[in-house]
TrEMBL record:
One of its GO terms (biological process) is proteolysis. The keyword Protease applies. It holds the Pfam family PIG-X. This is Protein PBN1. Belongs to the PIGX family.
């Protein structure tokens, strides 16, 4: 097992003298306000049986957990990539593998066939639950095996990864290692934003390796680069920090711009998600396009034919539909759907914003039209809460500097939307602004048939149909018998 701990302190803030205490046994951290990343690397033989089964049915595996909380706007540094809240998995299954372990791990809310294969080999899998209950179970199992007979802090540190806003699991079949990476992306202690980190970092075994880096962002970096200066140490080997400075190109960056989203009211059965963006009046470059990536769970769905109407798209603030994958059946109820939902990538209409709204200092807006499926009847509830994750909004910018991209030690691969853009693309992400909410999601109540009333409704419907049928038959018989014609003749004679 290997461990890498990275702290990134706010720019321009000096680290207090008593915040770090490095000895030959470990590193004490006290009241350090910093963004934090933890990465644990486990050899295949170290994994518990369930984890071996999970990675053993795949040739490549990437699982991303994002809870939709704790965003630092304007952050310029690593850990800038974004995903909609939820669980996102990208997997290359082994031949004839049905991915049963992955399905069991993600739970019943996902489906292995949820979105079609991409790159001709990757299969996308999604789940709506961003609390990642199964992640905690996996971490518990790994900790129980890895930390057996060593200091309790080993188990606590591994299990605590599940509390991070963002957690990645990556399995590399070539090196046969599983990386679990967790990131806390606000300047706080992870649980209390106004307090700093307080922890003790040490090797759990004599052969264990723990690398620690404490950095701050260097503002002199190039536009497409990230530059960090600070100090590093190998805990258990070094008794003093070593100063360091390095810069590297990064594919993902964060902009100082923010956005919010919510449903237009009243919602009805055809809700519209309105997204408001504060762009600041300019784009990162001439080759950039503004885009939005949605992961849309049941019972929501989009109408692909509606999104092909160019005049409608223009009125919604959208230039084009780039991609739509997943469930698009327009008639089926939610309980007959076999797939988790769908994903949508949109190119947004920035030209209208720059031509008409910038001069008046107005924000940009775009709207995604949605529809709701009929849900399965419930024994007592007349409505059910439906949750829609906010999109990931980003500028996609073409660059000639792609040959340098492999140098970044922090970039993430397989996020679900990169494949829709040229390889030579940088991404500049906008930050969700959580106003009067704790998570980047919007919710609404969906009407549901109460099953105890269903029998009465069914009988009433049958009765109405029967009465209508009898009436039609009676009128037909009377017509055939000439009753109606005789009455008409009598009426004419009276006249």
């Amino acid at each position: 097992m290997k461990r890498r701990v990275t702290f990134i302190t706010p720019p321009g803030k000096e680290i207090p003298d008593d915040a770090l205490r490095l000895t030959k046994d470990g590193l004490g951290v006290k009241d350090l306000k910093a963004i934090r990343e933890e990465r644990f690397t486990f050899e295949y033989d170290e994994l518990p049986w369930f984890a071996k089964l999970l990675v053993g049915e795949t040739r490549e595996l990437y699982i991303r957990f994002d809870n939709g909380k704790d965003y630092t706007p304007g952050w310029k540094g690593p850990f800038s990539s974004r995903l909609p809240p939820g669980v996102h998995a990208f997997v290359v299954p082994k031949e004839d593998s049905e991915l049963k372990q992955l399905e069991m791990f993600l739970g019943s809310s996902s489906d292995i066939q949820s979105v079609s294969t991409t790159y001709d080999r990757f299969t996308k899998v999604y789940a709506s639950d961003p609390t990642a209950t199964k992640l905690h179970l996996l971490l518990d199992n790994i900790a129980a095996r890895i930390c057996k007979g060593v200091d309790r802090s080993c188990r606590d540190d591994i299990v605590n990864l599940g509390n991070a806003p963002s957690v990645d699991l990556t399995y590399d079949p070539t090196s046969k290692v599983l990386d679990i990476t967790a990131a806390w992306t606000t300047y706080g202690s992870g649980t209390t934003p106004n307090e700093g980190w307080k922890t003790y970092i040490m090797p759990y075994t004599p052969t264990g390796r723990v690398e620690v880096g404490i950095f701050s962002h260097d503002e002199t970096a190039e536009e497409e680069e990230i530059s960090l200066r600070g100090q590093i140490a190998v805990v258990g080997e070094d008794e003093e920090f070593k100063p360091t400075l390095f810069a590297f190109p990064a594919r993902h960056h964060s902009r100082s711009n923010i956005f919010t989203a919510d449903f237009q009211r009243p919602t009805g059965l055809h809700p519209k998600l309105e997204v408001t963006l504060a762009l600041g009046g300019k784009s990162p470059g001439d080759t950039c396009s503004l885009n939005a990536y949605f992961a849309i769970p049941q019972p929501f769905f989009v109408d692909p034919y509606q999104l092909e109407d160019t005049s409608l798209l223009k009125s919604l603030g959208i230039t084009a539909l780039i991609a739509l994958e997943g469930e698009t059946d327009l008639e089926a109820p939610g309980y007959e759907m076999k797939k988790w939902g769908s994903t949508v990538v949109l190119e947004l209409d920035t030209q209208h914003y720059f031509d008409n709204r910038v001069k008046d200092h107005l924000p940009m807006e775009f709207t995604l039209p949605l529809h709701l499926r009929y849900l399965e009847p419930h024994s007592s509830k007349s409505n059910q809460t439906a949750t829609l994750p906010w999109p990931t909004v980003f500028w996609a910018c073409y660059s000639e500097e792609w040959d340098k991209m492999s140098a970044s030690p922090f970039d993430r691969r397989m996020l679900g939307y990169e494949e829709y853009f040229p390889e030579h693309t940088y991404f500049y992400h906008l930050t969700p602004q959580l106003i009067n909410r704790t998570q980047a999601v919007s919710k609404l109540e969906v009407p549901v048939l109460v099953s105890k009333d269903g029998h009465l409704i069914e009988q009433a419907t049958i009765g109405i149909i029967a009465i209508g049928f009898i009436w039609v038959v009676a009128k037909t018989l009377l017509s055939l018998l000439g009753v109606g014609n005789k009455q008409a003749v009598v009426h004419q004679k009276k006249e």
